[in-house]
C-alpha cells in the first residue's frame, strides 16, 4: 500500500462525499425547514439518473442529459409537492414516513413500467472517458475529476445562495425557527415549495452525475438514502454547512474503510476470516462515525437550531 494508492482513495472518497452532499443538502433543508421526513427523496435521485441515462443515449449530449434530468425531476417534484407532500406538512412524522414510503413503491413500479426491470449502463462522455495524469504514477479518471469539480462548484453556489441572498435568509430563518419566520410575514408556503424543488434538483443532479459510474437500476434511491440520512444526522438537521462537512467525512470514512480495512485484516488474520470480516467492518464504518459524533454532539456537528 503506497502513497499513490492512498491519495487515489482519498480522491474517490472526496468525490463520493460531494455526491452525498448534493443529496443530503436538499434532504436536510426539507426536514429542517418543513419538518417533513421525505423518504422519497432517493426516488428523485433515481429519476435523475434514469432520465440522464436515456437522454444521453438518445441525444449524445451529456450536458443536455444532465440539464434534462434536473428539469424533468424538478417538474415531477413540483407536482409531487402540490398533490401529496403539501398535505403532509401539518401531519406527524409517522404519517409522513408512511406516505413517502408509499411514494417510493409507486416510483419503483413507475420506473419498471417505463424503462423495464433491467439495469441501465449509462455511458461516460467520450471527452472524459480517459484518465488524466495528475502526477507521475497516478492516472486518475477524468470523469471522477469532473464529479469533484461539479460537487465543489455546487457546494459553493449553495453556500452563496443560503448565506448571501434574500432567499437564503428566508431559508435560514425557516430552518432556525419556522414559527417566528411565519410571525414575521414570511410566505412559508412559497419557501417550502422552493426548498422542495431545490432539493429535488440537487438530488437529480447527483443521480445524473453518478449514473456513468454506477448501475442505474430500480431501488438505487433507497440504497443512497441511508448514507444521506447518516450525513444529515452527523451534520445537524437543517444545516447546509453541517451536511457538507458530514458528507465529506462519511465519503472519506466509507471509501477508506472499503479500501484499507480488508488488506489490513488480511495481514493479521487468516484469509478466510479476513474475507468475511473486512467487508462487514467496512460497511459499518460510517455508522461507527455517526455514533461517535452523536456521543460528543447529540445535535450534530452544526445544528441549525443551536
TrEMBL record:
The chain crosses the membrane at residues 14-32, 62-85, 97-122, 142-162, 183-210, 216-237, 244-265, 277-296. Keywords: Amino-acid transport, Cell membrane, Membrane, Transmembrane, Transmembrane helix, Transport. It holds the Pfam family BPD_transp_2. It is a multi-pass membrane protein. GO terms for cellular component: plasma membrane. CDD domains: TM_PBP1_LivH_like. The keyword Lipoprotein does not apply. It is found in: Cell membrane. It comes from the Bacteria. InterPro entries: ABC_transp_permease (IPR001851), BCAA_transport_permease (IPR052157). One of its GO terms (biological process) is amino acid transport. GO terms for molecular function: transmembrane transporter activity. Coiled coil: none annotated. Belongs to the binding-protein-dependent transport system permease family. LivHM subfamily. PANTHER family: ABC TRANSPORTER ATP-BINDING PROTEIN (PTHR11795:SF442), BRANCHED-CHAIN AMINO ACID TRANSPORT SYSTEM PERMEASE PROTEIN LIVH (PTHR11795). This is Branched-chain amino acid ABC transporter permease. It comes from Thauera propionica. The lineage of its organism: Bacteria, Pseudomonadati, Pseudomonadota, Betaproteobacteria, Rhodocyclales.
